[in-house]
């Protein structure tokens, strides 16, 4: 037997209630509401809130507080989206609400988000992803056949021929094979096994996954992770979260941020006194420093890793972003191969790439991959297990990654437009890299190394002693003080160098070169005027 269905204002009981529910004890007044359908449900909600919040007359304490929070989470810092960016958002909102400032807009030069800065998508990439997402477009004459062919091939590798399905945890098989073919072509014949390719949710996901495999131990046996300083804050954040030991090696600013092998040995020997260094991370081309490492430098790093038995992580997401004519991107894998079988068959290497940078700038797709070589087979099984926990990377991102490694060829219909768009993006970035270096170096108290690659300038700024003292009195880093002033007076949002790491006594900021050439000129002009005014204010123009 069941009770009848009740209806009362604001609530509908769509199911008949079993008779046993009639005799159940009252829970937060629900029995009364059922037996008296005219009762006001607002009071029932209020009663529930009070009852849930009190226990024996006392307010219930929260389980998760700052005292009980995982201490490794509290240790994480990520400057690229830190206090400066939060402040920039507040100013933007203030301006939108009619507030007045000495400027009309906030120019966010803090992050390498190409499309947010106005870069247009590569047409062919968007066509292929659109076709994969909505296959009915295959019948449209607006889409070229070379895009349709790629979309059909990708969909054939997806469950149910749908981008809405899960893929295998390492990624769609045909995309992994395309990536391996791309790597072989890029590295001029160096073999690549598609089963060593793993699709990731952006390069960051792959980097975090490999670090999780490497980090272990307690006290003096904790894993040491060697990272360049300045570095991309993902690395320091991951090391803090995993309770590993950050081992800094400093890039040579006076030599265009080159990597000094003697500095590697110094950092390694010092770290061995309190941890177990297991891995060395390299970012090439560099972020935030914009340098492109020479082949000789890469050989020295790989020899160092071979001798000290270190796992190598090579962050190569900017491999298409090389602007200086006398610089060339060399993959760590190719250099390792050219060093001979003794190196190529033994040094453990994970290399990372992404849809977010290069000439596509497709950050939002969160596409990427890693190639892992010389990993112990049993550990490789553990890697696959770890990847399985997160099911699979987004399939739209996998499709976008496939277009990057399998672009239109010269004999295909879309090649001409694709080549024009790619060349236009990279040519504009090269022009903006040169412009940024020239304008900043003309400002008293600013020194900027050539932006050889990537998407950023990392100029060194002179901050007068009086300004340093004022910053310290306010409890902040001098370059944070400088960047906050720059934001509040000009609307320009850049990231202080202290968020990336720098030698003591030096100060920098990172800015992206992604804004349009017109907006970049405005930005650089405002930086110049602000810096001169800042020096005058603190009596240090000399």
Describe this structure in words.
It is an enzyme of class 2 (transferase). It comes from Sinocyclocheilus rhinocerous. It catalyses: L-alanine + 2-oxoglutarate = pyruvate + L-glutamate. With 542 residues, the chain is an alpha/beta fold. The protein folds into two domains: 79-117 and 418-539, Aspartate Aminotransferase, domain 1, CATH 3.90.1150; 124-405, 3-Layer(aba) Sandwich (Aspartate Aminotransferase, domain 2). It has helices at residues 30-35, 41-53, 71-75, 83-96, 123-133, 145-156, 173-186, 202-214, 233-241, 261-271, 295-308, 332-338, 341-344, 377-389, 395-405, 415-441, 465-473, 478-490, 517-537, and strands at 7-8, 11-12, 54-55, 58-59, 107-108, 197-200, 223-229, 245-250, 276-283, 311-315, 349-354, 368-373, 446-447, 456-457, 460-461, 492-493, 495-496, 509-512. The chain has a seven-stranded mixed β-sheet with strand order 6-12-11-10-9-7-8, sandwiched between helices. Helix 4 (83-96) runs parallel beside helix 18 and helix 5 (123-133) packs antiparallel against helix 15 (395-405). The protein starts with 6 loop residues before the first strand and ends in a 5-residue tail after the last helix.
